[in-house]
Structure formats: C-alpha cells, structure tokens
Amino acid sequence: MQIRSLNQAVMPELREWIVAQARAGVLPADILEAMQASGWDAAVARTALAQTLPQPARAATPPTAPGSVPVPEPDLRGASPVLHLPDREVQVLFRLQRPRAVLFGGFLSHDECNALMALARPRLERSQTVDRQSGGAEVNAARTSDGMFFARGEAPLIQRIEQRIAALLRWPVEQGEGLQILRYRAGAQYRPHFDYFDPAQPGTPAVLRRGGQRVGTLLMYLNAPEGGGATVFPDAGLEVAPAKGHALFFSYDRPDPSTGTLHGGAPVSAGEKWVATKWLRERVFV
Ligand code: PD2
Ligand code: ZN
C-alpha cells in the first residue's frame, strides 16, 4: 500500500481545464454539461466546479446532507490483526476512520481468484454505468473496463464468497447486489466517482426501489497488474495497490461527498487488472 496526495497529482489538470473554459466565457452550466458528456460523474463534476470557480454570494442555507444510516462494519474490536471468519482467516492490513476504509489480506484464496476470472471471462462485455436520466444502464467513457454480473448465489463458489462477505461485514447476503467482475486492459481506468446513487439525479428513485441506497463496497482484487491500476481516493490522499486476494472495504453512511469516498481506478499501465465488486444496500436487494 502506498499513500500519496492525488489532489496534487490528478485534479490540477482538470482544474486548469475548468479555469480555461471559464476564461473563454463558457458558462458554468455548459462546463458541467461538457464534463458529463466526456464521462465525468455528475457529482464529481459539480464538486470540481464548486472547488475551482468563485462562488456567487448567496444567502446562508442550512446544510442539506441527509442523516446517516446504519452501514456494514467488520468487527475489529479485538487486538489481533487476524479475523477468524467461519471458513477463513483474514488479515487486517490497515483501517481508516474517514473515509471509513479497511484493507483485508487473504480474503480470497488464489484458487478462488482464478476460478472467478475463468467463470467470468466468457461473459465479459464493455462496462456500463447507471444512466442518470432514466436509471437504466449506459456505456460510459469514464469506465473503460469490461465487466459482467453474477446473479446472487448462482454457483457454489459465488455462494461461498457471498457468505464470507456477509460474515466479514455483518450484513445479510440478501442486502447485497450480485457480484460484479471487471477486467481492465492496459490503458483502461475508472474515473473518480461515488458508489452511492446521486440523490439529485432523476434516475435515482427508480434505482433505489430495488433495495435503497448503496451503503458499502467490498472491492476484491483477483490479480495484480504489472503496472498501474491502484484504487485511489483523491480527497483522502489514499492509494491502494491491487494484490491478489486482498479486499478493500469502504462504507458511506449518507449519499454525500462528506463521506470522503470519492474513489477511482487509476489507469493500468501494463498487463491486466481484474477485480470483483460487491455493493451493499440499505435493504433487501431484488
Ligand atoms: O477497480 C477499481 O479499482 C475500482 C475503482 C473504483 C472499482 C470501482 N470503483 C467499483 O467497482 O466501483
Ligand atoms: Zn467505485
């Protein structure tokens, strides 16, 4: 694991571009639209604009962040850096309070990683994200990976991993989405985004009907690429290098940037990167 400030490494380019657009007379709403058209997540684009351009004076308004909800959380009360799950021992490699993030070592065996990649490979398609207008799926330039979803419990291996996740995070299997597998080839990346659904987007109510908000993510690394591909949290200055079998957990108790969970997958520079993602919902996911 390496930690460095991505605010200094990545965001300046974007900020320079925003400033250049504003100087050329482009209105903030049009800059926002151009960013979204080129694949930036709406919430990320709005945050970047707000942090870069001077804000017009306005009357003081109370904070609008909604209240917090219960989230998945591993039991880390013991002094030992090893967790004894029903079917496996897992190492706690680091833990962070804000954003709430924990890195686990040895969550999956190498055989399990290999089996997941082999099962997923013939079913991979260009990744999609949720369409902000309709709540349906769309191909998005911000995410240049290939992906697929396993249905919950669709094979004994999937069931075993889902039960292990439920035990680790103390969150019912039924409140999890199906396991997603992503493969990034050299040059592919996943631009910074939030995993929760943006309450300001018109498509969000339709998505929330299937089990409420996402409240946590477990990102499992199925291999280590030869170069690049770290998972990065720009606002926290945190960078996690993929390692086969490791799993990165983070939670967000409200759909708000104050959770500090803005994160992305840095470009893979050599080889391939494979991950499995489990998103956890507030309620039963149907
Ligand atoms: O592959 C990653 O590192 C990554 C980064 C950000 C995956 C996801 N988000 C995701 O699956 O949500
Ligand atoms: Zn994500």
Task: State mean pLDDT (0 to 100 scale).
Answer: 86
Poorly predicted regions: 1-10, 55-65
End-to-end distance: 36 Å
According to DSSP, the number of beta strands is 17
Helical coverage, percent range: 10-25%
Number of helices: 7
Instruction: Spell the H/E element sequence.
Output: HHHHEEEHEEEEHEEHEEEEEEEE
User: Based on helices, strands and strand pairing, what is the structural class?
Assistant: alpha+beta
Strand percentage lies at 25-35%
Bound molecules: pyridine-2,4-dicarboxylic acid, zinc ion
Strand order of the largest sheet: 1-2-3-14-10-17-8-7-4
Q: From the alpha carbons, calculate the radius of gyration and give it in angstroms.
A: 19 Å
Largest sheet at a glance? 9 strands, antiparallel
* Net shape: globular
Structure commentary:
With 286 residues, the protein is α+β, with helices and mostly antiparallel strands. Helices cover 24% and strands 27% of the residues. It has 7 helices and 17 strands. It has helices at residues 6-9, 11-23, 28-37, 42-52, 110-120, 156-169, 204-208; strands spanning 82-85, 88-96, 100-105, 125-126, 128-130, 137-139, 146-149, 180-184, 190-193, 214-221, 227-228, 231-233, 238-240, 247-251, 263-265, 268-270, 273-281. The strands form 4 sheets. Strands 1-2-3-14-10-17-8-7-4 form a 9-stranded antiparallel β-sheet. A hairpin with a 4-residue loop joins strand 12 and strand 13. Helix 3 packs antiparallel against helix 4 (42-52). Mean pLDDT is 86; it is low at 1-10 and 55-65. The site of pyridine-2,4-dicarboxylic acid has 10 residues, from strand 15 and strand 17. Pyridine-2,4-dicarboxylic acid binds next to strand 15 and strand 17.
